[in-house]
Amino acid sequence: MRVTVRAPAKLNLFLHIGEQHADGFHDLESLAAFTEEADLLEFAPSDELTLRAQGPFAGALPGVPDNLVMRAARALDGNRGAEMALCKNLPVAAGLGGGSADAAAALRGLNVLWKLDRTDAELLAIAASIGSDVPACLLSRPLWMAGRGEQVAALPELPPVALVLVNPGVAVPTSRVFAALNARSGTGRMAPPAAGMKTVWDLVSYIADTDNDLEAPAEAIYPVIGEVLAALEHEPGCIQAQMSGSGATCFGIFQDGPWAGGAAGRIAADHPGWWVRATRLAAPGFGAPLVLAA
Ligand code: C5P
Predict the structure, then answer these.
(1) Which residue, judged by its Cα, is nearest atom 15 of ligand 1?
(2) pLDDT tens digits along 22-64
(3) Ligand 1: which of 19, 26, 187 to mutate, judged by most atoms within 8 Å of the beta carbon?
(4) Do 137 and 97 meet the contact criterion of CB atoms below 8 Å apart?
(5) Percent of the chain, pLDDT > 70?
(6) Distance of CA 244 from the midpoint of ligand 1 (Å)
(7) Is the CB–ligand 1 distance for residue 24 below 6 Å?
(8) DSSP 238-265
């Protein structure tokens, strides 16, 4: 038996930061959603626990022992082996939760490969011990994030949304952006969205009065983020452009897929060093493990 799992990129449709606690972490509130742009993981039975990484961003990953996928596997069951392969399609340290998505995908996939039948609550507790974004990535669906990010509540599905993701090729350490934070929206400013959003316009009007509080400090350290936002905003059909997480990836919300595709082509042509993808929000079940015969 082999198990494959997609690890979709996470977007913060808004991100409000609140108080800082004694442990250094901040309270936050965020509407997060996941895209069809994803890493891919594959798991096969083995006596030893091994990880092989390939794909366009494999070279930017930390060494195997420290990789979040290894940490997730050991946290799930320290005594079992598996041959794990990761196709790293998503840029690293990019505000897309890529490493967290890989760790969460490992929890979903190995739970099936090892026939552990861990409940969602058990997997969420393990996920929270690995990193602030891993519980969100475990659910890989529209959700409300609170606490330091580890408190997650599933939300109703969002309408279809066409997106362009742009990363200018700078790796952004999250802790550095938090350290440069000056203005905070605070938590409690927004209520989770109600069910029944039908179109992208419903979503855009919901997030109209929100911010990503990390955008200003990230842009102050990495001014190229301002160029990315300007490039997206310049495109016809772009309704809104915003940074995700602590950056540097920004996303544009587009009227529909053809507008997004055209914009991605032009931005990529004008900026050969940038990573540019037209994508859309993932449908339910996009990150569910798929069992294949060996
Ligand atoms: O949990 P994670 O490793 O993703 O966090 C990276 C860094 O981001 C932390 O070391 C901390 O500096 C900052 N952070 C924070 N408040 C949060 C989440 C992360 O200050 N809620």
Answers:
(1) 25
(2) 999 999 999 999 999 999 999 999 999 999 999 999 998 877 7
(3) 26
(4) yes
(5) 100
(6) 14
(7) yes
(8) EEEEEE-TTSS-EEEEESSHHHHHHHHH
* pTM greater than the 0.85 cutoff: yes
**CA gyration radius, the chain:** 18
In the chain, where the domains are located: 2-156, 162-280
Q: Tens digit of pLDDT for each residue in 190-238?
A: 999 999 999 999 999 999 999 999 999 999 999 999 999 999 999 999 9
User: Which of 15, 23, 174, 213 should be mutated for ligand 1, with most atoms under 8 A from CB?
Assistant: 174
Q: What amino acid is encoded at 72 in this protein?
A: A
Q: If 0-12 CB within 10 Å is exposed, 13-18 middle and 19+ buried, where does residue 184 land?
A: middle
Q: Classify domain 2-156 at the CATH topology level.
A: Ribosomal Protein S5; domain 2 (3.30.230)
Domain 162-280 is found in CATH 3.30.750.24: no
